[in-house]
Amino acid sequence: MQAAERIDEARLVNQGTYAKHAGVSAATVTRWIRDGVLERSLVQRGKRRLVDPLVADYERAERVAEKARADEDEGDAEDRESYQSARAAKVRADAEAAQLKLAKLRGELAPVEEVGALWGEVLGTLRRRLEVLSDRLGPELAAIDDEAEVRERLKAEVRAALTDAANEIANSG
User: Fold this and answer.
1) What pLDDT, on the 0 to 100 scale, is given for residue 3?
2) Were both Cys, which of 25, 37, 147, 153 would link to 32 (CB 3.0–4.6 Å)?
3) Rg, C-alpha atoms of the chain
4) Residue 4: what pLDDT?
């Protein structure tokens, strides 16, 4: 089972609830189970079968995509091929959207705005730390005659600024 298909016990619903979620009848869900369309998304609890809706949506999209690819291979008329090709592209896009939705729910994805804001803060902190180096270290370094010692002191201060930036990133998660 792939990471994108893990069942979350907290999301489990009964077949009727999943049917409403999917916009189909309970009989259709039963048929999907019987036909093997829904396998990895099912959990047996005594006589009841529960469904993880996100995994089931992914599973259904994957199954339809497979069928669309098979139909593409069988198509013989240009119109049918064009229709099947467009249908397969839509199904692949739906399957990808289901994978992204699962990844987002697991916290594996972050919105671009949040990442950009975090990097803005980190780079701002780093810039401020580096901008004050000359004022802070100038008098101290002017008194040092050894070039190697000046270099080491500068390296240590730059390293400290970079470490602070890295810690800010680590503490933001």
Assistant:
1) 41
2) 37
3) 28
4) 47
